[in-house]
Amino acid sequence: MQNITTVILAAGHGKRMKSSLPKVLHNISGMSMVEHVIRVAQSVNSENIVCVVGHGKEQVKAQLKDAPVKFVEQNVQLGTGHAVMMADEYIEAGDILVLYGDVPLLSESTLNDFVAMHQKDDNDATVLSTIVDDPRGYGRIVRGSKGFERIVEHKDATPEELDINEINSGIMIVKAPILKTLLKQLENNNEQNEYYLTDIFGLILEQQGKIGVMIAEDDYEVMGINDRYNLSLADEYMQKRIKKKWMLEGVTMISPASTYIEIDVQIGKDTVIYPNSILQGNTVIGEDCIIGPSADIKNSIIDKGVSVKHSTIIDSKVDEKSSIGPYAYLRPKSDIGKHVKIGDFVEVKNSRVGDHSKVSHLSYIGDGEVGTNVNVGCGVVFVNYDGTHKHLTQIEDNAFIGCNTNLVAPVKVGKGAYVAAGSTITEDVPADAMAIARERQVIKTNWSNKYQKKV
């Protein structure tokens, strides 16, 4: 492809969203709308990606601080033509691709075909259109015997033109020298006193230029998001696209409609995802996993052969062949080894649990290091917080921690050591020792007879 500069129009207010958040920052499947547009622009190897910001510009810039974009400002919104004028310093050579920050569903394949058609046909400008059942409110593409004739806005269309179902998406690509020249010729003599970018097509035809039109097969790809209802439709569409991709890659989804998968999630083949599961952020799921039902996993790495049922995992790692849940909660910085069992109602936070260890139920593992082949009994608590600081609990390999034990950090249980059930451990337990830290049982015979009612 020839040199391409992409200009993304993202300065609008979006009043119909009824939100303090700029419209282009609203989320679709784990990414803001404008970030979806930036990503698709990258697919055509844009040399420069220029984002025109205005309303909420500081929020938009903050959100995109790590994105490969340059910013120009449109502090007064005077139309699409005026917005592109703000990027004049970047309109120098090659082709200028104009995209919209609130049109996030355009696919890489459609955009690449669009750019390829424009450059292959050596068009001065090319517009992306689509066919819709209800074209009300959209500008119509009017064609004649020689192809494209003009774009007519709905309010200006004749009855015959109102019957046209091919609409203008607003997405276009124009040779840079032509665009740079024509932007200076745009006028704002209309009811809104705005500069319309689409007016350049008439100017190109007046100069005997060549304009091409490509029809996007799926009208959803060019749908603009104007309100929360549009946002929900866009998210639903994106979800279908994401889930179809993974199912075609060998992932089984028992109930796709009840599963939510964000765009950057990765899933290995032969993994089965059960209903009501949510996979978010930069989560990576390995092969042959069982995810769900009702698994909620965010920014975590789940290795091959892992089972996660009715559990939440955040910013953590689970190594291969381990079992999580039901009803477990892995909080940030949990690192679970191989062949580990984290059972029901177990909470783990900022801790490493070594290979072949078991924390089967009703325990809290916080700020801990658990070795290999350790058994942590029911109701064990790592008492990690003294009211000011967090402290470390260490359990070395092959240790056994009995039920209802409190390990008061900082404390260490040595290799092969045993801690008796019901103990509160405040001092280190040497390797291979037995620690008992509880009151000796006392039995008082015939004691309850004084308190039982006579029958």
Keywords:
455 residues; alpha/beta; Spore Coat Polysaccharide Biosynthesis Protein SpsA, Chain A; UDP N-Acetylglucosamine Acyltransferase, domain 1; 2 domains; eleven-stranded parallel beta sheet; 8 helices
Describe this structure in words.
This protein is an alpha/beta fold. The chain folds into two domains: 4-222, Spore Coat Polysaccharide Biosynthesis Protein SpsA, Chain A; 245-435, Hexapeptide repeat proteins (UDP N-Acetylglucosamine Acyltransferase, domain 1). Helices cover 17% and strands 30% of the residues. It is built from eight helices and 41 strands. The strands form seven sheets. The protein has an eleven-stranded parallel β-sheet, with helices on one face. It has a nine-stranded parallel β-sheet with strand order 14-17-20-23-26-29-32-35-38, with no helix packed on it. A seven-stranded mixed β-sheet has the order 5-4-1-6-10-7-11. Strand 2 and strand 3 form a beta hairpin. The N and C termini lie far apart (97 Å). The relative contact order is 0.07. The mean pLDDT is 96.
